[in-house]
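Standup notes, protein team

Yesterday: finished cleaning the Ampelomyces quisqualis set.
Today: RNAse P Rpr2/Rpp21/SNM1 subunit domain-containing protein structure.
Blockers: none.

Input for RNAse P Rpr2/Rpp21/SNM1 subunit domain-containing protein:
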Amino acid sequence: MTDQVEARASYLHEAAHLLGISSPSASAFLGSAYNKLLQDAELEVPAKALDAHRREICGACGNLMIPGWSCEIKNKPPKGETTVRNQKVKCGGLPKASPSIVYCCSRCHRKTEQTLQSQPRRRVRKAKSLVVTQANTATSDATNEDEVKKPRGVNASSKQRQKARKGGLQAMLEKNKSQNSSQGLDLMDFAM
């Protein structure tokens, strides 16, 4: 039974998305049928999929929410922060609130609010980075001394190979020029 319900839910979801631009009212009907099916069947939907569903389809009318087309999006700052004389002051006793995004459906004007999950800030320790940079400069000085001590024979052989390649290419170009000049006139000779 659940396989049939999941198949029907998938069909309604895909059909609502396919008809979103060409027939918004049919898409809204299919979206509301999808919402009703999810509520009636009490399917266990992962939180991530449920958040995506709330972003895509209006919970009241079933309208497919396309930003700028069928819905408006607004950022809502956290409630714990207030501004006093252009300075942000955090309320001491309240837990830190997350910022959220408000989706406003253009069809029924329902507002759907979704909180954004904030990631913890990375802490960079400067003391370790100073030690690492000092160690890197010491090793780079040692490598510079090694490079000075290396014989230049490696570079000399690569330069010889490069000259040989250039000589081969020059010879090929000279050969092509001599062949082209002996063929006579061409259509491109008369083009201006």
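Follow-up from PR in the comments: Helices lie at 2-18, 24-41, 47-56, 126-149, 153-181.
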